[in-house]
Write a structure and sequence with these properties.
Elements lengths: L12 E6 L3 H11 L5 E5 L12 E3 H19 E3 L2 E6 L4 E6 L11 E4 L1 H13 L4 E5 L1 E9 L2 E8 L4 E11 L6 H6 L3 E3 L5 E9 L9 E5 L5 E5 L4 E7 L6 H4 L2 H8 L9 E10 L3 E3 L3 E2 L2 E3 L5 E2 L7 H20 L7 H27 L4 H14 L39 E4 L2 E4 H5 L4 E4 L4 H14 L3 E6 L11 E2 L4 E5 L4 H8 L4 E4 L5 E5 L2 H16 L12
Parallel strand pairs: 1-2, 1-11, 2-8, 5-14, 11-20, 24-25, 25-27
Antiparallel strand pairs: 3-7, 4-7, 5-6, 9-10, 10-11, 12-18, 13-16, 13-17, 14-15, 15-16, 18-21, 19-20, 22-23, 24-28, 26-27, 28-29
Helix pairs in contact: 1-3, 1-7, 2-3, 2-7, 7-8, 11-13
Length: 549
């Protein structure tokens, strides 16, 4: 019997997820893998077969791998080689090279055909006994009472039913019913443009170098991106004075595609349609036992490629916090840190995307010429492409308080590299496992004592002792010691270097790969574990922002 079954009112499911797009599907799998009962309510009777997102970054690939589909991601993706911005004359304004072996153990950028990703997630969900997916079920009312939430649902055959859940998560997209029902206010930055989106399937293989290009031509700002094996996308901005109806015609799509060698003879047009991007976020992500995630909580311009990535981060952040709450291992107020962390993180991503868009969406020739001259002047002396930035860290929330311990990696996404244990070598997540991780350079048990050790065990924490590359003798006897401590060799030397960067001997990492905090020495390691326990058991500290409607 799970702890919450002992005292909470009876329900049909632990978590009801409204919406079965990639965010809802990923969240449901992450929850079910933890042993929770999940019911997914999707209004569409069948899967949506057209792509929306076209890529995800290396951090997001790592998060998706945590749903159990890691061994199949390579079959539906192609690593992007780079991202460039060009002037109308073809001069390079921005040049970023992507590595096929990125900081987080995956390619820096992965192009994909979204329906293929959703098929992988659907197959994974079908393999888990805790998930029930109900298609053709539209939520029309939500009522919370006595520590449970009742959803009223209309089915495609006209019948009505109710689903009673302990928690509800609205992953139902930009036009979210859940958000509207909660009457959540939205902040809209008022930055929006209309673009023609053209998804094509190439009849013959072609190489595009780099994979992704932004043409900053005031005559027609244009985007070219990969979208998985055999697929590409072109996007063309609607010009001032041009009507939506004129742009949104198939013959217009073929006319605009032709200069790129894309014709009915060389490609099949899967879709051409106009869309208007927006820059908005919800002012509240939680109301009682109802939460928002993905496009239901935020929308952003496409120029940084972070829309779907942000939604997957929402799911990864929320899944482990819901699990601990439902297992009685954390106070429900820990869910306020979901809104606190993700809300701030998303705002920063949206503002960055808007900043990029203001540079790209220029149709005045004089303004474009001034932009080009300024950017090109700033690039003088640079040789070769740059590298993508590390994943954006968390700046607030469930992190070790500033000033505690050694350095301040708290909030950063921990890198992933190869380690060796038990005679095998592979990426850390696959060799050690996922969940909380206490990474150390020495056996922490004497300092932690039985009480702290039991706390870490209740969280299913992987306690890992690192040995340097090429270790021999006792240090080379790696694997599970049978006492809850796992010895691994830092094959690539990445983890020991990361600890040394912060003068740390221990690192406590959350299940979403964000660092909770670092410690230096045995006593500080014990204090680090104590702080996590206190933060999980208590309300959000005074001064923190509670995002409740």
């Amino acid at each position: 019997m799970r702890p919450h079954d002992q005292y909470e009112p009876p329900t049909d499911t632990d978590v009801a997820v409204v919406g079965n797009g990639p965010i809802g599907a990923a969240l449901s799998v992450l929850l079910a893998q933890r042993g929770l009962r999940v019911t997914v309510l999707e209004r569409r009777p069948r899967p949506y077969t057209l792509p929306r997102a076209t890529s995800f970054d290396g951090e997001t690939a790592r998060l998706l791998a945590a749903t159990g589909i890691g061994d199949r991601i390579g079959g539906i993706t192609e690593p992007a080689t780079g991202y460039q911005w060009h002037t109308a004359a073809g001069r390079t304004l921005l040049d970023i090279a992507f590595s096929p072996e990125g900081r987080y153990g995956w390619p820096d950028a992965n192009t994909m055909h979204q329906p293929a990703l959703e098929e992988l997630l659907a197959a994974r969900a079908a393999s888990l006994p805790g998930i029930t997916v109900l298609r053709g079920h539209r939520v029309v009312d939500i009522t919370e009472r006595d520590e449970r939430v009742t959803l009223t649902v209309e089915t495609d055959d006209g019948a009505d039913r109710t689903v009673v859940a302990r928690w509800v998560v609205g992953c139902d997209g930009a036009n979210s019913f859940v958000r509207e029902h909660l009457d959540v206010p939205m902040t809209d930055l008022g930055f929006s443009y209309e673009w023609l989106l053209c998804d094509v399937e190439l009849r013959e293989p072609r190489e595009f170098t780099p994979t992704n290009v932004q043409i900053c031509d005031p005559a027609r700002p244009t985007t070219l991106v990969g979208s998985g094996p055999g697929h590409r996308r072109w996007e063309f901005m609607r010009l001032p004075g041009e009507s939506s109806a004129e742009l949104n015609r198939e013959e217009t799509a073929w006319r605009l595609l032709k200069p790129f060698g894309v014709t009915p003879e060389t490609a099949r047009l899967l879709r051409s349609t106009t869309y208007i991007f927006r820059a908005t976020w919800a002012e509240a992500w939680r109301s009682g036992r109802v939460l928002l995630a993905g496009d239901a909580a935020h929308l952003m311009p496409p120029f940084a490629g972070q829309g779907m990535c942000s939604g997957i981060r929402d799911a990864a952040n929320l899944a482990w916090k819901l699990d601990l709450t439902l297992r009685g291992l954390a106070d429900a107020s820990v869910l306020d840190t979901y809104a606190q962390e993700r809300g701030q993180h998303v705002k920063e991503s949206i503002l960055s995307s808007v900043q990029l868009g203001r540079v790209i969406c220029v149709t005045d020739p004089a303004a474009a010429a001034e932009r080009d001259a300024t950017v090109l002047a700033g690039r003088r002396g640079r040789t070769g492409p740059g590298a993508p930035d590390a994943a954006r860290p968390l700046s607030t929330g469930l992190l070790r308080t500033p000033g505690g311990g050694a350095g301040s990696p708290a909030g950063a996404v921990v890198p992933q590299a190869r380690v060796s244990a038990g005679g095998g070598t592979g990426l850390f997540d696959e060799v050690v496992g996922r969940g909380f991780v206490l990474l150390t350079t020495a056996d922490p048990r004497p300092a932690l004592g039985e009480d702290r050790w039991s706390f870490l065990a209740a969280l299913d924490t992987h306690v890992v002792r690192l040995s340097p590359p090429g270790a021999t003798g006792p240090a080379a006897d790696t694997g599970d010691t049978g006492t809850g401590l796992t010895d691994v060799i830092d094959t690539d030397g990445r983890y020991l270097a990361y600890l040394a960067e912060y003068d740390a001997t221990a690192l406590l990492v959350r299940p979403d790969y964000h660092v909770f905090g670092a410690a230096s020495g045995p006593e500080d390691t014990a204090a680090l574990v104590d702080e996590l326990r206190d933060r999980l058991a208590a309300a959000v500290p005074a001064g923190a922002t509670h995002h409740t409607a």
